[in-house]
Design goal:
- By secondary structure, this protein is of the alpha+beta class.
- The chain has a domain of about 120 residues: Alpha-Beta Plaits, CATH 3.30.70.2970.
- It contains five helices and nine strands, in the order H-E-E-H-E-E-H-E-H-E-E-E-H-E.
- Strands 2, 3, 4, 5, 7 and 8 form a six-stranded antiparallel sheet that branches. A three-stranded antiparallel sheet has the order 1-9-6, covered by helices on one side.
- Helix 2 runs antiparallel to helix 3.
Length: about 270
Amino acid sequence: MTITVSPRRIAMAVLAIIALSATYLIGATRAVGTGVTTSTRAATISSTQPAAYPVSGSPGINVGGRAKVAGTPDTLRLDLSVVASATSVSEALASANRSASAVQKSLLGSGVQKKDLQTSGLNIAPEYDYSNNSLPRLKGYQVTESISARLRDLGRAGDAIGKAVSAGGNAIRVNGISLDLEDTGALVSSARDKAFADAKAKAEQYARAAGRSLGDVISISEDVTTPSPIPMPYGLDAASAKGMASVPIEAGSQDVSVSVTVLFEMR
């Protein structure tokens, strides 16, 4: 069987195919164009956001200043101990307790405040006899009680030490004393003023040399150094203190230091 198609129908079919193809191409182009536009817009927004931090800070002069102020120590720390030996622990401890109580009572009577008096240590140790070549023989026990006191009246400190040593008798041992500067508030304040003045003088000199003027203070940091107690070993016992009415005390001086770092604006 032969099917005959007219030329008109063929032409209409070709036109329909062309129209469908054109519609498809236009839609695809719009979709692609939209994607390109969106992507470009996002990139543009991202690239124009401001930086989180400035690239460089304000010009300024960063200088250091230092000052040292001397003060007289106002406190003496006394470290001593009493030592007692006996054939039993109880006897040695009782003997040490009596000597320690006498020392504490003497210090309180010399003006030492109760809050400044402290039992700082207790040690009980066996004592052996090594005189023979045989095995060591236990001969008793030794008890050591340590006492620390702060004497805030340096004018009476020497007399207080002498009386405490006499009160402890042969059991007393003075391990050492140390001088301290506790009230440093006024000294630190004075050192701060001088340290800042030192830093400002340097900054003004640099500003003049640069042909500029000094502006406001931007930041300040400091480091304060206060004196540590000065240990003075005495090794004083009742025998060496016999007949000594007062232990000579010379306070001397100690330094308080302040270092500052100041950042000034430069105009």
